[in-house]
Write a structure and sequence with these properties.
It is a single chain. The protein has 638 residues and is of the alpha+beta class. The protein is 33% helix and 31% strand. Helix 15 runs parallel beside helix 16.
């Protein structure tokens, strides 16, 4: 491996872009797949010598056009329009003289070529120049991976902040957007949560992402959430860089990670593929610089561009309602330049931007392509993943939202979409299709709310369902408690608490409110609750056998079987089968169980007893009574 060099390393050495070097290699007939491919040192030296020889020639070529350009400057008077005007003025002077009339057609002949430039070919050129002014934009990076593999710690190291220490349970609960600088170039990071409950948030992250960093612990290797993240990355068609983290820990095995990735169809550099893999320690900062360099390399190959002059548009990353500020939305500007005062139209709401803040909370006046900003001024809380665009007037925005709501109502009335209303939920319960667990779910931010509700709804099976009667952002209010009381629902609060009135009404009406800080605690509790709604497994347990040795007839009672317990025991509450010659003739309950003259609850092996059967007296001496019980075993959701 020592006699080979990667394309991107050679490009850096020759001070050329990867694209330029790849073009040179193609012209020379050297086949390489990408910037991650390798060539031998001999070929590299040949290319280096060839390019060094071409450099002075290219410099001469560059200087010549400058000279010609210099000569072209004095030629500017030649195509001057005033020259065309002068002959026209000369023609105007002799106009009063009749002898000069024949000269007019001659001058007209001279002017005939002049209409040719009048189509003004320069004008289309000017229009072409005004068309999309594309500029280089920062890459948007999503960090993905299994819970506790070090995603937040990596971002913490990169941006030198302390987010990880404040995250409940060590798991990132919200999507955050951050900007870091590396070698003078900005990189935008989206921090998507690592727990499996936030699948949809992670998917949205991949949709707005240019490059994904997959963090894998070198000690644990590929885990379920790792595979899940890989599937999202593949579906989004996003370039991937693998960060093999925790290489400083005992038991770290980076090669095992590479092997596991190969088994999943991801081949990293050195293992027959061109996916970048960088070994790092997020805690100690080892290899982080190399990781950022690899990210910028991928970004360079993509040639990411944005048009700052276009009509601003982008995507909502996160949104919440703040007591003092109102609706606060984190957005990524995809194109154009977003400014304070712009009127933005989203899918479910609109607003006039009152203020913009960068990722560090500093107020800014405008934001260009690939810039994450927090905006204030929206009328409602948008859903993460909603697209936005700037419209000219507030009336345009209002009209668009009214049309969208009208279309939604029409779809609901025609049954095109499933209505999330109490009426349909109650009708489902009346039809008796499934037993349901009714829930009211409240969260601190919209992203957590959507992800949690998606997971809870996915817990439903063909035997038990989940009905989320209401979902919302903000504190648990009186209205939530009243709804839960009326519909026999449980209130789940994630990072929110009930106010005083809500607590009092809940206690009066016996409504259960459960609050959580960590997402998997919510899921575990709901699983337990759903398990209680599942039909239990019925298992038969044999207690013993009783032989009928004598039959007694009692007036007004009927036949009593005089029995002897030959095996096990018999209980008063047990069920029995009457067996004759190996054939079951009857199956039912015991009406009475007596020992001597006393009614007893159970009798064991070797004891005599008198048994009367419930609704059956057709038994004979020698018949066997097999006593058994039906045990109900609770089931759990898998």
């Amino acid at each position: 491996m020592n006699n080979k060099i990667r394309i991107y390393d050679l490009a850096k050495k020759l001070k050329k872009s990867n694209k330029e070097l790849l073009t040179v290699l193609q012209e020379l007939g050297i086949s390489v797949k990408s910037h991650s491919s390798s060539i031998d040192e001999e070929t590299a030296k040949t290319i280096e010598t060839l390019l060094s020889e071409q450099a002075p020639q290219q410099q001469k070529k560059h200087t010549n056009p400058q000279r010609t350009a210099g000569h072209s400057r004095p030629e500017k008077p030649k195509p001057e329009v005033p020259q065309d005007n002068r002959p026209q003025q000369h023609t105007q002077r002799p106009n009063p003289a009749h002898n000069n009339r024949p000269q007019k057609p001659q001058q007209a002949h001279h002017t005939t070529p002049q209409p040719a430039p009048k189509p003004q070919p320069p004008k289309p050129q000017v229009k072409a120049a005004i068309q999309p002014r594309l500029v280089e934009r920062p890459p948007i990076i999503t960090v993905m991976g299994h819970v506790d593999h070090g995603k937040t710690t990596l971002l913490d190291n990169i941006r030198h902040s302390s987010v990880a220490a404040h995250e409940a349970g060590g798991i990132t609960q919200h999507i955050g957007a951050y900007v870091v600088m590396h070698n003078g170039k900005p990189i935008v990071f989206l921090d998507t949560p690592g727990h499996e409950a936030f699948t949809e948030m992670r998917m949205r992250g991949a949709n707005v992402t240019d490059i994904a960093i997959l963090v894998i612990g070198a000690d644990d290797g590929v885990m379920p959430q790792t595979e899940e993240a890989i599937n999202h990355i593949k579906a989004a068609g996003v370039p991937l860089v693998v960060a093999i983290n925790k290489i400083d820990k005992q038991g770290a095995n980076p090669d095992k990670v590479r092997q596991q990735l190969a088994n999943l169809g991801i081949f990293v550099e050195g293992w027959g593929g061109d996916v970048g893999a960088v070994e790092i320690s997020a805690k100690k900062g080892l290899g982080v610089e190399d990781l950022l360099e690899r990210v910028l390399l991928e970004a360079e190959m993509q040639e990411l561009k944005g048009n700052p002059d276009a009509n601003p548009e982008g995507v909502v990353i996160e949104a919440r309602r703040d007591t003092g500020k109102g609706t606060v939305a984190t957005v990524i500007v995809k194109d154009g330049t977003l400014k304070a005062g712009d009127i933005v139209l989203l899918e479910t709401t609109w607003g006039k931007i009152r203020a913009l803040f960068d990722w560090a909370g500093k107020g800014i006046k405008k934001a260009g392509p690939s810039t994450p900003v927090e905006i204030l001024g929206l009328d409602g809380v948008p859903k993460p993943g909603e697209k936005f665009r700037v419209v000219k007037t507030e009336r345009d925005a209002r009209d668009a939202i009214d049309l969208a709501k009208a279309a939604e109502r029409e779809r609901e009335s025609t049954g095109e979409v499933k209505r999330a209303s109490l009426e349909t939920l109650y009708s489902n319960l009346e039809e008796g299709q499934l037993p349901h667990l009714n829930l009211v779910v409240k969260c601190d931010v919209q992203g957590s709310l959507e992800a949690l509700c998606a997971v809870l709804e996915n817990l439903a099976t063909n035997e038990v369902g989940v009905s989320i009667l209401h979902r919302g952002v903000g504190r648990i209010a009186e209205s939530d408690v009243m709804l839960a009381s009326a519909s026999n629902a449980v209130i789940l609060g994630f990072n929110v608490r009930p106010d005083g009135n809500a607590k009092r009404i809940a206690e009066l009406n016996g409504v259960e409110i459960r609050t959580y800080n960590v997402i998997y605690d919510v899921i575990d509790d709901v699983k337990l609750a759903l398990s209680g709604l599942l039909k239990p497994v019925l298992r038969e347990e044999t207690l013993g056998e009783v032989e009928i040795r004598q039959i007694f007839r009692v007036p007004k009672v009927g036949k009593i079987a005089g029995c002897h317990v030959t095996r096990g025991l018999v209980r008063r509450t047990a069920k029995v089968r009457l067996i004759r010659d190996g054939i079951v003739l009857w199956d039912g309950k015991i009406a009475s169980l007596r020992h001597l003259k006393d009614e007893v609850k159970e009798l064991k092996t070797g004891m005599d007893c008198g048994i009367s059967l419930e609704g059956y007296q057709d038994f004979n001496e020698g018949d066997i009574l097999e006593a058994y019980e039906i045990i109900e075993e609770k089931r759990t959701l898998q």
